[in-house]
Automatic annotation (TrEMBL):
Protein name: ABC-2 family transporter
Keyword Transmembrane helix part of the UniProt annotation: yes
Keywords (A to Z) from UniProt: Membrane, Transmembrane, Transmembrane helix
Organism: Natranaerovirga hydrolytica
Sequence intervals crossing the membrane: 15-35, 41-64, 93-113, 145-167, 179-199, 211-235
Top-level lineage group: Bacteria
Amino acid sequence: MLQLLKYEFYKKWKLFLIVICILALAQGIILYQLLVKDNWVASLAIFTTIGYAGAIFIFIDSILSYSKELNNKSGYMLFLTPRNTYQILGSKVLISFIELIIGFVIFVSIGYINYGIFANVFTEVFEFGDFVISFAEGAFILKDILTFIFLALMQWFNVIITAYLSITLSTTLLSQSKLKGLISFILFFVISYFISYIINFARDLLTEVTALSFSSISMISTVILLITSFILYILSAKLLNKYVNL
């Protein structure tokens, strides 16, 4: 598994380097808007855009990488290695999760650095910001915040795993269909909706039975996402093992 992770990292290191350069450029623009133009609104807009763009980038990078592995020569060579499909797919799943964690840490770090600068430059604005944070700290304890963050990461991770299964279906069961791309695309949304329905149903059912805290609801949702992600991973690996003749 470690060798497979090294392979995944080696395959992406140039892309990671480009992303770091883009982030450095974006941070420079943020500081320029803040310190030279005195425009904290533009700085905040750029920072928010970085967050959304980063999440979308990780999703696209993960599914494109997986799709290419199944459809080109590098995928042929990879699946010929003395590793079973569970290990190969597991390495891709794990590297996607690592990308999510690293992306989140970078986003929070940039936000923390910029917040300190913003607060020094725009005192009045961030006095109100401090008030909002103080109010939030009173309304939510640390456990609530941490469980919500982990839930958000698991939700996005689950989206990636769902996309993996959809791509796997198009390469296996739907490989002979002319509409395999469209069908797998529709299946992606159907599976996502079904998982969301399960989470909402379980949350509503438990809420009717007993009073649950915010962190408890987040933890229940996270557990369901973990279980469904594992099931989707197993299904994808079984399909690859049975139908893909690399």
